[in-house]
Amino acid sequence: MKKILLTLLAGTFILCGQEVRPVRDDIGFCWQRPQMKRLMDLLAAAERQDFPVRGMVAGISPHDDYLYAGRVYYPLFKKLRTKEAVIFGVTHGAVRKEIGDPHDILLLDEYRSWSGLSREVSISPLRAWLKKHLPKEDYAVSNRAHALEHSIEALVPFLQYNNPDVQITPIMVTAMPFERMAELSERLATVLAGYMREKNLQPGRDIFFLISADANHYGRDFNNIPFGEDEKAHALGTEQDLRIATAAFNGLLNEQMILALTRELWGATYLDYRNTYWCGKYDIPFGLLTTSKTIKKISGRRLKGRIFRYSDTYSEGVLPLKKAGFGITAPYSPKHWVGFFAAGFYLD
């Protein structure tokens, strides 16, 4: 029955009408290089910290509006140089409703290229490699899912700005229990390692692994107000985000740490939430499992993580940029805010 369902899902999801994946959010993100340069120049002038990039092979990035989260994107992307990137994205609730809420699989696309900064972004040959070597029950192909989802496209302008010829492999992660993540990430890591050996790709220099995620979504409209709706509630909520992120991403990465993260983010089952409403509750653990296993297969080494920066939509407000190309898609207050962070992962 499961295989039949997946076959139906794959057949339903495939859309062939467009060759270039269109922009989903043209308010919160920049899509023209001059606009992106204004943002990057502003962020560079304000940056006071320097984060090491030597040995960095993976990272977690926000996908919130640039005027909110630009300061948090910047430390991860400012020195990132790579030929191609695997990007693990969220499958947000609104998208799940539109595509029948598939579980336990990855969602790939079949666009020829993606929209980027004033030019298209090429798709890596890795995508075809995945479709050829992964078991068919592990993924479905859905241009519709990728057209509706904004979590991967948010990273593309930052990535492309300093890597104009970068190729990407977009992968949306659906809801799945940890046991399924463990087995699927093992198969995917084996396929990724095979591709890297075939192409003689070095992690970090030639191929980089990105995970798109925001942290807690706080407010009544998220059905998530465990601490109240005032300044103290905001402080408690952001402290909780930092506690979870610090425990999960600082230091040597291992499967037990990733399992502990899922227990923080999930409730009684993997489909529940606790006092956190992270939209990265599936793609963060899956992406980290896959990346760490891939690196282990390629180099025999482990990953060590470091949080670069954490913030939220309320604490710092919006960046002082105006005119076309800059906007926000949601309000901010102690009653409604979203947390986000950037982290890097290095060869230990």
The ordered H/E elements are: HEHEHEHEEEHEHHEHEEHEHHEE
Helix fraction by DSSP (H/I, runs of at least 4):
25-40%
Name of the CATH class: Alpha Beta
Q: What is the 3D shape? A: globular
Indicate the multimeric state: single chain
Strand content: 15-25%
Note the main sheet: 13 strands, mixed
Describe the structure.
With 348 residues, this protein is an alpha/beta fold. The chain has one domain: 3-Layer(aba) Sandwich (Protocatechuate 4,5-dioxygenase, Chain B), CATH 3.40.830.10. The chain has 11 helices and 13 strands. The termini are far apart. The model is unreliable at 1-17 (pLDDT under 50).
Keywords:
single chain, 348 residues, alpha/beta, Protocatechuate 4,5-dioxygenase, Chain B, 13-stranded mixed β-sheet, 39% helix
Write the layout of secondary structure elements.
Elements: H1 2-13, E1 20-21, H2 33-46, E2 56-61, H3 66-77, E3 84-89, H4 93-99, E4 106-108, E5 113-114, E6 121-123, H5 126-133, E7 139-141, H6 143-148, H7 156-162, E8 167-173, H8 178-199, E9 207-212, E10 217-219, H9 231-249, E11 251-252, H10 255-265, H11 283-299, E12 303-312, E13 336-347
Parallel strand pairs: 1-5, 2-9, 3-8, 3-9, 4-7, 6-8
Antiparallel strand pairs: 2-13, 4-8, 5-6, 10-13, 11-12, 12-13
Helix pairs in contact: 2-3, 5-8, 8-11, 9-10
